[in-house]
Design brief:
541 residues, eight-stranded mixed beta sheet
């Protein structure tokens, strides 16, 4: 049992650290960038404030040498307090020596994190509720309803496979849940399985079904959440929907060879979110096993019905898997539905521009001097900036510009460390900024996303890496900075899609998208062109 004690914040610990020590932790490049932004040597208060955000405390505690240096910074009274929290005898020996001598088990490291005011991922991750009962109102826009009805015609006749192709921000999940609820009403008792990769997509699907069924349902049904640490055993579900993580399905099938076949025996509809992933061999085996009965149907959902930008063979493979059966959104009088949706206010009108073609792009002297003036950086320092420093300054300047006009700015960083650097610098300049990466605890993710989605009139910047490309809806977000170079039109479309929800869908009339990809690539920089990029491979042979 952990003994409660007040502990000490990591920021307070850094107050006792010397500037050279802090600079060594931040690294030479990051420290020099701070100096450049300061117009000379960064001040100690600014250095400590940035370090408290940029440093990964979990990583420092995990390293024995760095952990000992941190412990040495604690006042003696806090060293004694920490020993008591760890249920250790204080004795006659100096408390620091006793702390050094500990074996530092995983549990002790967790308690040290908590002592510094942090929360361990192990203790923070909530266990998803795996089952609930919902009991029985849910409308679609005309263009959504038309797409759903055309999908049903393909699912219940002929090949019984189809892809529903809707732009990001137009309600793929809502349309699919409308169809799923209708299927359950018409085929009682039966099971629908929803497959997806990633907790955000899975939780979004479960919540959307609950909203749909309470308005459309005709009986109580079961909802099973099966991903992460939730159980994979869903044998008790004979009438309802199973929201099943792809990783969970693959693992369960390896552990129990007849797991998928038992599910298939009572399943009549499988829905695969982000269907461009479906031809991955492990995922394809899962889908084939679940749809083995002739009466079962498969619906794929995607905004990007292709695998790649340039390899047409992979795109053809995806098309053939669905027998070239694809339903694309149609709006009468318009050749491209995206253009129509923007005109009608369902999607925001985008302004798209590029600040640099890649991270190694060297800014012009004129651009560097302009950025230097905005940050009050002396001209001689600007002239000596490295390629990476000048590029990062351009990204920071871009975020600053967007934050003047937009309440919510979403940043896609190039790496976890890049995410930390950008967030720390923005905070040091009094901009409300936070970050989410794959390393963030579930508690931090939930709190940060809730704050970003909130109605506060204060501008907020949210930096992320590898997390918020799918399953994330923040209608108030009206600007995106894509600071990770990519040649993937699929990934690019997913990132852009986070900020293009229009006023009729609860979003904003306009949005700004600043990207570092090469706009000369087909589909990049034009939402309408990107949406129709793969149409040729889906045409009937």
């Amino acid at each position: 049992m952990t003994i409660w004690s007040p502990g000490i914040s990591f920021e307070s610990v850094l107050e006792a650290a010397s500037p050279p020590y802090i600079r060594s932790l931040l690294g030479e490049d990051f420290s020099r960038l701070l100096d450049v932004l300061e117009g000379g040597q960064v001040t100690e208060p600014r250095l400590r404030a940035v370090a408290s955000v940029a440093l990964d405390l979990d990583r420092l505690i995990g390293d024995a040498t760095e952990r000992e240096k941190l412990l040495a910074l604690l006042p003696e009274t806090k060293q004694v307090e920490l020993l008591q929290r760890l249920q250790q005898e204080t004795g006659e020996a100096p408390p620091l020596a006793l702390l050094y001598a500990l074996p530092w088990t995983s549990d002790q490291k967790t308690q040290l994190l908590e002592f510094f005011g942090e929360t361990s991922e192990v203790h923070a991750a909530p266990i998803p509720q795996s089952r609930i009962t919902v009991t029985p109102e849910y409308s679609l826009f005309p263009h959504q309803l038309d797409a759903v009805e055309r999908s049903k015609a393909l699912l219940y006749d002929g090949y019984r496979r189809a892809v529903l192709h809707l732009p990001t921000g137009v309600g793929k999940t809502r349309c699919a849940m409308y169809l799923a609820a209708d299927h359950l009403r018409q085929n009682a008792p039966t099971v629908v399985i929803w497959l997806a990769h990633g907790q955000e997509l899975l939780e979004q699907a479960a919540a959307e079904f609950e909203r749909a069924w309470t308005k459309m349902g005709n009986r109580p049904v079961r909802v099973a959440r099966s991903w992460s640490v939730a159980p994979s055993e869903v044998g008790d579900i004979t009438d309802g929907i199973i929201i099943l993580g792809l990783e969970k399905a693959v693992a369960a099938a390896k552990r129990e060879p007849d797991y998928l076949s038992k599910l298939a025996s009572r399943t009549s509809l499988v829905i695969f979110d982000e269907a461009h992933q479906i031809i991955a061999p492990t995922y394809q085996r899962v889908v084939d096993a679940l749809t083995i009965r002739p009466s079962s149907s498969l619906l794929g959902l995607t905004a990007t019905p292709g695998r790649t930008w340039a390899d047409i063979s992979k795109d053809e493979e995806l098309s053939e898997f669905f027998h070239r059966q694809k339903v694309m959104l149609q709006i009468g009088g318009h050749s491209n539905p995206v253009t129509a949706l923007i005109e009608q206010g369902y999607l925001a009108k985008p302004t798209m521009r590029t600040v640099a073609a890649k991270a190694g792009f060297k800014l012009s002297t004129e651009d560097l001097q302009r950025i230097g003036r905005s940050f009050d950086i002396p001209k001689d320092l600007v002239d000596r900036l490295s390629v990476s420093e000048s590029w990062n300054l351009q990204v920071i300047q871009t975020i600053h510009d967007l934050a003047q006009r937009n309440l919510r700015v979403l940043v896609f960083a190039a790496s976890v460390d890049h995410c930390r650097v950008l967030t720390a610098i923005l905070r040091s300049q009094n901009i409300d900024a936070d970050l989410i990466t794959g390393e963030s605890s579930q508690r931090h993710r939930k709190q940060t996303v809730a704050r970003f989605k909130g109605r506060s009139p204060r501008t907020m910047v949210l930096c992320n890496y590898g997390v918020l490309t799918t399953g994330f809806d923040a209608p108030a977000a009206s600007a995106a900075v894509i600071a990770r170079p990519t040649k993937s039109l699929v990934l690019y479309s997913q990132m852009v899609g986070r900020v293009i929800r229009g006023p009729k869908a609860g979003g904003t009339p306009t949005c700004e998208i600043v990207t570092v990809v090469d706009p000369a690539l087909p589909g990049f920089g034009d939402l309408a062109e990107a949406f129709t990029n793969w149409e040729d491979v889906w045409e009937s042979a």
